[in-house]
Amino acid sequence: MSRIEFDGVVVRAVTPGGPVPEITVVQETTLDLTEQRIALIGPNGSGKSTLARLVNGLVEPTTGQVLVEGLDVAKKGREVRRRVGFVFTDPTAQLVMPTVIEDIALSLRHQVRGREERAAAARNVLASYGLEELAERSVHTLSGGQRQLLAIAGVLATDPAVLVADEPTTLLDLRNSRKIGDLLLGLSQQLVLATHDLDLALRCDRALLVDQGAVVADGSPAEVVAHYRRTAG
Question: What is the largest CA-CA distance in the chain?
């Protein structure tokens, strides 16, 4: 597994026109993450999505460092993003091409140079996720579950070492939530999963409870989820 380190990380955000000039989104955090499946849980606005986005540089720390396999995310962002894939809550944020196969082909543009070879590789990716029959469909005609599956397939097509998923089941019905959850937890890649789904979190190897920008519990998923349930009310 990769090693993800947070070394004294603080994230502050400017609030123009607000009662204070800036707010602390993530309080000083030091972590060493080496487990295969890591869950980030906590209430809305707790900072867990910000922690997730720090891993691949979508958010940069105000102070401190985030390191992925020794690479400083703020200084080596391009190299880190080749190793760390990111799945958004809403798949429409990352499905940018008109058709299903074109979207996968876009993900493969750096690995497979030839146009015909890239199209063939894209079809192979779709087949591996049971999406081959949708190859020529417009991404706008897909169901929510199909869109999220396609978004994940596009990220995994680049073979990242780490996958960060920010509440990937929030917009899905129960059946598709289970399908996407099973897929993510069955990956060989290291997974950092920000989620409200506590059943999904319980299937991970380690869980962090985030509240008001701070990691307030860290340990086995059973213990951390139990702590969250006791304190959430």
Answer: 57
What are the tens digits of pLDDT across the range 87-119? 999 999 999 999 999 999 999 998 888 889 999
Q: Show Cβ contacts of residue 168 under 8 Å, excluding neighbours closer than 6 positions.
A: 87, 88, 89, 148, 152, 180, 184, 193, 195
Q: Which amino acid is at 155?
A: V
Q: Give this prediction's pTM.
A: 0.93
Per DSSP, 132 falls in state: G
Class of residue 210 by CB neighbours under 10 A (exposed 0-12, middle 13-18, buried 19+): buried
Under CATH, which architecture does the 35-59+73-232 domain have? 3-Layer(aba) Sandwich (3.40)
Check: CB of residue 101 under 8 Å from CB of residue 126: yes
